């Protein structure tokens, strides 16, 4: 089947879990910025975690489904309507053939994900279907969606508009050790600051110039303890750099593979998805942590994902779906 793009949205790209094993050749990772939402979406529609989804930034597309499809919307809450009916996020929805899905504004974050059963069947490049916007390859010709595009997919569905009577908690990834969604844990970097506590003590705000390459932070400029000549060194998603203006940049999935700016921290892997949901102007707190704390947070996240996967699989086997009609809403319950 194919899915027709009627309206592309602000920046909608095909993403999976990224392109790994090529950084030594200068090829970046790309992939879903909110890997947690990406994984949950694929769980809901019965896909492997590696299946491609659509990453929707700020404002979503309008899509026509030629054949029946099973979909899930995760990440930031997003306005979603089919035939005048509002669809829930973080649940499973079956769409009949000919459905036009209208996705509006992301309301409580910056990015949503649309997963479809079977994934988006685009040719992999270097082992991944992820769109690398900087490199101009992967996904759909290395770019965001445009009006008139057709996305190949082999989606399963029942042929009726139905929604599961249960849902996933949108905040299930919040760690009890760091309940503030504006906070991310940061390990020490290789370069020391003149004021060691300044990075954590500052209430940063996300700059409007941020993109998939990195979050630029607005706040008082920071200074290094010592000015030393640097050569380019490897960087990764989560690396916190300090450019000459003294305002940090937190690298994201489309980051370059090497950089010459001082490195003043590294965001814990478990918190990278939180960065994806910080909108321009949103606050961001950088909370110091140790390697042991970062490893424990990653372990907690893996366990939660496994438990959600088991619960979703059980619900899909046992719980009937409910027809969605005008003026009605499905009964909602946790899996």
UniProtKB/TrEMBL annotation:
InterPro entries assigned to the protein according to its UniProt record, in alphabetical order: CT_A_B, Cyclophilin-like_dom_sf, PxpC
Domain of life per record: Bacteria
Keywords: ATP-binding, Hydrolase, Nucleotide-binding
Domain Carboxyltransferase positions: 24-305
NCBIfam families attached to this UniProt entry: urea_amlyse_rel (TIGR00724)
Protein name, entry field: Biotin-dependent carboxyltransferase family protein
């Amino acid at each position: 089947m194919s899915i027709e793009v009627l309206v592309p949205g602000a920046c909608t790209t095909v993403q999976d879990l990224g392109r790994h094993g090529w950084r030594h050749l200068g090829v970046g990772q790309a992939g879903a910025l909110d890997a947690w939402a990406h994984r949950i979406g694929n769980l809901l529609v019965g896909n492997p975690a590696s299946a491609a989804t659509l990453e929707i930034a700020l404002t979503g597309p309008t899509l026509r489904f030629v054949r029946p499809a099973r979909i899930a919307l995760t990440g930031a809450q997003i306005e979603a309507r089919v035939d005048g009916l509002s669809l829930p996020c973080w649940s499973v929805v079956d769409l009949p053939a000919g459905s036009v899905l209208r996705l509006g504004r992301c309301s409580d974050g910056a990015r949503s994900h649309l997963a479809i059963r079977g994934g988006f069947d685009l040719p992999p490049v270097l082992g991944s279907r992820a769109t690398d916007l900087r490199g101009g390859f992967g996904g759909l010709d290395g770019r965001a969606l445009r009006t008139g595009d057709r996305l190949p997919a082999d989606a399963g569905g029942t042929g009726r508009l139905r929604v599961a009577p249960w849902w996933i908690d949108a905040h299930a990834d919040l760690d009890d050790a760091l309940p503030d969604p504006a906070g991310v844990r940061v390990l020490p970097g290789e370069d020391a600051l003149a004021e060691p506590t300044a990075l954590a003590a500052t209430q940063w705000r996300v700059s409007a110039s941020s993109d998939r390459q990195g979050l630029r932070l607005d706040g008082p400029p920071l200074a290094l303890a010592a000015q030393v000549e640097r050569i380019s060194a490897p960087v990764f998603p989560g690396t916190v750099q300090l450019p000459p203006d003294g305002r940090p940049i937190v690298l994201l999935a489309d980051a370059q593979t090497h950089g010459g700016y001082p490195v003043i921290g590294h965001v814990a892997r478990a918190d990278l998805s939180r960065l994806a949901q910080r909108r321009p102007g949103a606050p961001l707190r950088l909370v110091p942590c140790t390697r042991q704390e970062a490893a424990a947070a990653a372990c907690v996240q893996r366990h939660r994902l496994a438990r959600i996967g088991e619960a979703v699989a059980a619900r899909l086997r046992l719980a009937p779906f409910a027809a969605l009609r005008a003026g009605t809403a499905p009964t909602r319950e946790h899996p």
